[in-house]
C-alpha cells in the first residue's frame, strides 16, 4: 500500500507554489497517489528519486505502532470534536505508525435483566452508540472514516446510511440494520460496557483516551490539544518525515 506521506508530498508538488512559482503536473498518465506504486510509473512521472527517498523513511515493521483507544459516546459534543478535530486528522497523517480503537459506550449503564441501556444523551445516544458499534463490527478497516463522517454531520444517526455508502460502498446497509435491531448490537454494547468498566483507573469523563493500554492525565491533556505531536513522541521507532519535518524539506527539494 502506498505511503500516505508519499501521496501528500506529491499532492503538494502538484498544487502548491514554491518560491512563488506554480509547478505543472508531471507529464504522465497517473494520478499523484499512484506515482510511487511501481518503479516504471515513478520513472515515467519523473519522481524516481523522491520515491526512493520516501521508501527509505517508511516505518520499521518490527516496531509496534502507537495504539490509541478512545472510550466515548456518539452524541457527546466533546467526543465528536475530538474525533473530528484531533483523532481523524492525526490518523490520516500517521496511520503508518498508529492504530485506532473506538469504544462507543462512555457513561452508559446496562440495565440487568431488561436487555437495554441507559445513556447520558437519552435513547438517541444509545441508538447512535449501537449504530457505531455495529459499523465497527461489520465494516472493518473502513469503519473509522464512516464514523468520522457521522460525527462531522449535524445528525449522527441519519448520517449513517450516506456515510456508509460514501466510505464503505461494498457493505450492505441491511447488514448494519440487522446488527442494530438484532442481538448482535446488544452483545457489542455489552462488550463495550465491560471494556469501559474494566478501565484502570476508571474513566471520569469522555472522551477517555489510552495509549498502548495506559492512561495518564498529561497524555489525555496533550491528546485534546495536540494528538499528532503526542503520537509522534510516543512512537518508539525512527520518526517518519511527517513527524520530524523532513517532509517539508523534501517538498522544498522539488522547487
UniProtKB/TrEMBL annotation:
GO CC terms: extracellular region; lysosome
The keyword Metal-binding is annotated on this UniProt entry: no
Signal peptide location: 1-20
Magnesium as UniProt keyword: no
Keywords: Disulfide bond, Glycoprotein, Immunity, Lysosome, Oxidoreductase, Redox-active center, Secreted, Signal
Top-tier EC class: oxidoreductase
GO BP terms, alphabetized: immune system process
GO molecular function, one term: oxidoreductase activity, acting on a sulfur group of donors, disulfide as acceptor
Main subcellular location: secreted
Location of the Saposin A-type domain: 21-61
Enzyme Commission identifier(s): 1.8.-.-
InterPro entries linked to this entry: Interferon-induced_GILT, SAP_A
Subcellular location: Secreted; Lysosome
Assembly and oligomerization: Dimer; disulfide-linked.
Protein's job: Lysosomal thiol reductase that can reduce protein disulfide bonds. Facilitates the complete unfolding of proteins destined for lysosomal degradation. Plays an important role in antigen processing.
Protein family according to the UniProt entry: Belongs to the GILT family.
The protein's name in its UniProt record: Gamma-interferon-inducible lysosomal thiol reductase
Organism, as annotated: Astyanax mexicanus
